[in-house]
Automatic annotation (TrEMBL):
UniProt family annotation: Belongs to the AB hydrolase superfamily.
Domain AB hydrolase-1 stretches: 29-266
SUPFAM superfamilies listed in its UniProt record: alpha/beta-Hydrolases
UniProt KW keywords: Hydrolase
Native organism: Arachis hypogaea
GO function terms (MF aspect): hydrolase activity
Protein name per Swiss-Prot or TrEMBL: AB hydrolase-1 domain-containing protein
One Pfam family hit: Abhydrolase_6
Length: 279
């Protein structure tokens, strides 16, 4: 295992294939998680993929499963640090092309990576994606600046208490639900100063100007009700993306529907993984 693979806990499961040669580009599905989670967020999807695909999973730097000593606050002050990590993983594994499935933060990481390296991605499947969380003139991202200030202050003052309040709001359930408990666990596993750094990077980025540069087909998948990403954001992305794109709004609630509503979300994801956008 290479240095990059080890640092990101890269795991490869599923059908055997000559990964170095990769004659069938669509044989590889790469799953990338969002803020506050780790690769375990895909646990309901992976069993449905492994008989058809080679599946690559990894943890973003800063996740509770990674070594906090490897977290470079300057590198990850922008999305580009995560883009470099993704490209390094693909290079180390000698992946020539993959179907990229990215959730939240990682959805936008895949979008940016595809601009400079479109050949590495046959398509992007973007779950709960947003190019900007902060409202702006003629743009509704879902958050005012004072909302974000309160969020950052909450992380600073009492991280455990903040996790307990944030998890049910984001997942869209009560504290007794399995999905909320799972998200609470992975969120609380993060070191508080790293969680604050990541939250500031994510909630204050603005990727809108890059959308028109994307040429890889994009499948945008969104919950009907998501505290973090309003449905209008998915529609905005479809209008602004440079290449082919499609939006599917699911009858689900919450920002992590792959955890909270797997019975609905998994068939949707499988459909988009298996089928391309019709021309």
């Amino acid at each position: 295992m290479g240095i990059v693979e080890e640092a990101h806990n890269v795991r490869i499961v599923g059908v055997e294939g000559n990964n170095n040669n990769n004659s069938n580009n669509n044989q590889i599905v790469l799953l990338a998680h969002g803020f506050g989670t780790d690769q375990s967020v895909w646990k309901h999807l992976v069993p449905h993929l492994i008989e058809e695909y080679r599946v690559i999973l990894y943890d973003n730097m800063g996740a509770g499963t990674t070594n906090p000593d490897y977290y470079d606050f300057e590198r990850y002050s922008t999305l580009q640090g995560f883009v470099y990590d993704l490209l390094a993983i693909l290079e180390e594994l000698q992946v020539q092309s993959c179907i990229f499935v990215g959730h939240s933060l990682s959805a936008m990481v895949g979008v940016i990576a595809s601009i400079s390296h479109p050949h590495l991605f046959s398509k992007l499947i973007l779950l709960s994606a947003s190019p900007r969380f902060l409202n702006d003139t003629d743009y509704y991202g879902g958050f005012h600046q004072e909302d974000l200030t309160q969020l950052f202050d909450g992380i600073r003052s009492n991280y455990k208490a903040w996790c307990s309040g944030f998890a049910p709001l984001v997942v869209g359930g009560d504290m007794d639900s399995v999905a909320v408990q799972e998200f609470s666990r992975t969120l609380f596993n993060m070191r508080p100063d790293i969680a604050l750094s990541l939250a500031q990077t994510i909630f204050q980025f603005d990727m809108r100007e890059f959308l028109s540069l994307v040429t890889v087909p994009c499948h945008i998948i969104q919950s009907t009700k998501d505290l973090a990403v309003p449905v209008v954001v998915a529609e905005y992305m479809q209008q602004k993306l440079g290449g082919k794109s499609i939006v599917e709004v699911m009858p689900t609630e919450g920002h992590l529907p792959q955890l909270s509503s797997p019975d609905i979300v998994i068939p949707v994801l499988l459909n988009h993984i298996r089928h391309n956008i019709s021309s």
